[in-house]
Amino acid sequence: MDTSSRPKIAILNIPSGMPSETFPIAISRVIDELDPSLDAEIEYIDVEYYGLSFDEIKARIQAISPQIIGFSAILTHAYSYLKELSLFLRSEFPDTVQVLGGQMSVLGNLIIQRTEVDFCVIGESEPAFSALIARLRDAKYDLSAPGRFSDIRGLVYMSGGIPYFTGYAESAGKGLGQMNYDLMSKFTNVERFFPHVTEGPFKNWINKYEVGDFYGWLFPGNIHKRIASVFASKGCVGRCTFCHRFFRGYVPFAPDLVISHINELAKKRDIGLIQLLGELFSSDKKKVGIIVDYLKLSRLNWSIAAMRVDMIDEMDILKWKEAGCVMISFGIESCSQKMLDVMEKRTTVEENLKAIDLCFKHGIFTAILLLIGMPGETEETVSETIRNLIKVIPDDMAVPYEIVINYFQPVPGTPGYEYARNVGLIGQSLEGEEQYVKGLYGVNANDIKHYLNFTDYEKEETAYWKHYIFLELIVGYIKKHGLLGTLKHKKANRYKYAAVYMLAPARIRRFLLKYGIMAASFGLTTMINVICRKIFKKKKPFFSLLRESLRELNKRMELPIRSDEMHTHVLRKGR
Ligand code: B12
Ligand code: SF4
Predict the structure, then answer these.
(1) What average pLDDT score do residues 406-416 get?
(2) Distance from C-alpha of 489 to C-alpha of 492, rounded to nearest angstrom
(3) pLDDT in tens, 29-80
(4) 124 lines ligand 1 (CB under 6 A)
(5) Same domain as 237, residue 133
(6) N or C: which end of the chain has fewer CB within 10 A?
(7) SS3 assignment, position 145
(8) Ligand sitting nearest the alpha carbon of 231
(9) Separation in Å, CA 526 to CA 261, 373, 378, 518, 557
(10) Which residue's CA is the nearest one to ligand 1's atom 49?
(11) Mean pLDDT, range 255-269, rounded to an integer
């Protein structure tokens, strides 16, 4: 290995098997923000986009001959791929130091023990990554004395036979930048991050018959232009029990920097629509106001990737609509207050309904985004969600109507994940946890097959919930607008199916759907087994009795700290 003073680093993204690829802003920032005095030579290998085989990755790494291989893993779903690749690269490049960063590093304890990764960088890459590189370079990449890394905060590595966490690093504050396209274009095709409006994500989010109505909301001319993604903030004021973040608190980006980035992109790339990314768009109305005023003048259209319902009112919606806003995503999650409390969403059903209603009323697209199957979910909470959402069906049939429903999928570092361990749905041992995260590869949260059952029903009995909510909300739509009126305006098959479905009385269609979906998803034999279990083995109510935040509940159920995680157990709590 080359131990000369100039560090050479190969950075790879780790595929998660999910259908949509990761927008690699994390990698751009890792490279961009590295301490320039290191004079490091960095190369990014876009494994995911180019679909590289292990041998192709090996050839690329051979050509670079790095002392450090950096893995960027945003989703935990990528764990099994990471493990295989890490083991393979260790056998091919035994002396190269492996470093992992990204959200997956919350599993630092597991990764350090079960893969060949030498260091996990926890949270923001800076200042830990630069400090680590400098220390490795000075030690000639010799890992035999782990104590020499103990003062670099933000690392997990093996020390004394168990993983050691050096504690959270304070963010260097540099890490609030945007994607550096000029930098990234040296390594990969960046043009794909500027799809044409009609080829972009909206065509997947809105059904083909209604997406035209959506395009109609754009300023004339923008429909022929391209989309760009821009971050406007980092962090969130919420602490939902299913959500993980390393970043503490909420920081809106400086409006002048966001504006100059948008301006530059718009000029260079013929942009017509800006997707504003980040966990929470507006908690600082003043800063957001400056960005909105600019967007209004620019005649760009724009969308908001994430917004809390308790932070928006009719004035905002009107102002934003006038300024070109065409879409806002709210994670409303549920319209049962009990479930919102279990999630510690800190919102009310009324706030959910109001936010959705305002968007529909003023012609801004918003999909109804639901998370079902959290502990405490019952047939009653599902029905309550439907009853409430039926109150806010759009009056105007030209408003696209979309409903997206996912099952709860515990993410490490969240109260939801810890609760799953507490009740034994995720193994409490290292092996048990690994088995769970390995199984996440490519698993879409809308797939019932992988749902860990947090209800008192048989899992198979909950398979129809997603379809039931969906169909009942369409039935509600038909009832509001009349069958003929609906079928005239809404051409997607869902309206035709719902028209047939609603011929049966409410209780009967629910029954038929439940057993129909069960048989279709799991087979007839399983369905019969489920029915037998229901008759002969009654479950005692447990999950259905839940009413409080999982975070509070966990305090009364905490498991003893395993001996291998003496130093790392704090990662379980997130930040
Ligand atoms: C924007 C976003 C989206 C967008 C875009 C996603 C994308 N893939 O680009 C959309 C809305 C499409 C989306 C979809 C999904 N998302 Co999302 N998303 C986010 C969000 C809000 C920001 C991610 C981001 O780009 N941040 C900006 C970058 C710059 O910040 P960063 O990741 O912190 O990067 C720093 C460090 O990680 C570190 N680092 C990163 N790599 C490396 C490498 C090295 C070597 C080093 C040293 C350091 C390092 O340094 C970076 C710079 O400081 C996060 C929440 C969050 N807090 O991260 C969730 C999040 C990543 N998403 C999550 C999930 C679950 C999903 C979905 C699976 C949801 C679903 N059920 O469909 C899909 C998957 C889509 C996909 N294929 O990626 C989870 C992941 C949890 C987990 N542990 O797996 C998160 C954490 C939110 C949560 N619920 O907890 N998402
Ligand atoms: S789910 Fe959304 S609102 Fe809740 S903490 Fe995460 S980013 Fe914030």
Answers:
(1) 97
(2) 9
(3) 999 999 999 999 999 999 999 999 999 999 999 999 999 999 999 999 999 9
(4) yes
(5) no
(6) N
(7) coil
(8) 1
(9) 55, 20, 21, 8, 33
(10) 101
(11) 94
